[in-house]
């Protein structure tokens, strides 16, 4: 059973999500929070596998709550918001968010995202990737120089595929290799580039910096 915390100051949102998620046989909403500080305290005091966290909340916003939750607990955070601002995306990723989705999604996509982050995959919605890519291209003009990173041709292909938001299965199909090989390549890339999760690979490609800071 995957234990979920919902953090949003809109009770209509948390109430609706709680009903939807509890209908899934392997998901259980174990609590709700109205601000980031409540969410953090709940994760400290209870076993929570995944926290769905809104960006705009009183007392402590979702970005800072994500940082505290991921630093001091084992809870995985998915940002769930109506605000697709690139600055929030970058900072939330830097703070350890494993997913970033818009609230107007089909509930099934949210359910799938929860399962994906539990399998150590990072999930960011395609529309958000597109905006992030466009905004950072306008800022820095060019993608990261992959040759300067001393990557092999296969590693370059993996980086570009991850930056498109493709899953391991989609990358495997694109490159005609197995999913296991993709996973191994991504793990090796993370070690080689000094990064902690796959989303940082995409940020590196877009901005030239793996920690989410565009120059």
TrEMBL record:
Source domain of life: Bacteria
InterPro entries per the UniProt record, alphabetical: CheY-like_superfamily, NreC/VraR/RcsB-like_REC, Sig_transdc_resp-reg_C-effctor, Sig_transdc_resp-reg_receiver, Tscrpt_reg_LuxR_C, WalR-like
Keywords: DNA-binding, Phosphoprotein, Transcription, Transcription regulation
Pfam families recorded: GerE, Response_reg
Gene Ontology MF term list: DNA binding
One annotated GO biological process: phosphorelay signal transduction system
Record domain HTH luxR-type: where: 144-209
Residue ranges constituting the Response regulatory domain according to the UniProt record: 3-118
SUPFAM superfamilies linked: C-terminal effector domain of the bipartite response regulators, CheY-like
Modified residues (4-aspartylphosphate): 54
Full protein name: Response regulator transcription factor
């Amino acid at each position: 059973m995957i234990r979920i915390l919902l953090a949003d100051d809109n009770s209509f949102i948390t109430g609706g999500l709680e009903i939807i998620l509890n209908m899934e046989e392997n998901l259980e909403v174990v609590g709700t929070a109205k601000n980031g500080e409540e969410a953090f305290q709940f994760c400290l005091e209870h076993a929570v596998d995944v926290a769905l966290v809104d960006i705009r909340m009183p007392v402590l916003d979702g970005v800072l709550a994500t940082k505290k939750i991921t630093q001091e607990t084992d809870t995985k955070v998915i940002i769930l918001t109506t605000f697709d601002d690139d600055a929030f995306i970058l900072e939330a990723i830097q703070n350890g968010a494993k997913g970033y989705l818009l609230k107007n999604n089909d509930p099934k996509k949210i359910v799938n995202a929860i399962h994906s982050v539990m399998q150590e995959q990072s999930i960011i919605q395609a529309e958000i990737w597109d905006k992030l890519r466009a905004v950072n291209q306008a800022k820095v003009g060019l993608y990261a120089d992959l040759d300067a990173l001393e990557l092999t041709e296969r590693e370059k292909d993996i980086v570009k595929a991850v930056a498109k938001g493709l899953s391991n299965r989609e990358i495997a199909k694109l490159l005609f290799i197995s999913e296991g090989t993709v996973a191994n390549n991504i793990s090796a890339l993370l070690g080689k580039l000094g990064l902690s999760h796959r989303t940082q690979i995409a940020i590196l490609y877009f901005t030239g910096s793996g920690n989410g800071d565009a120059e």
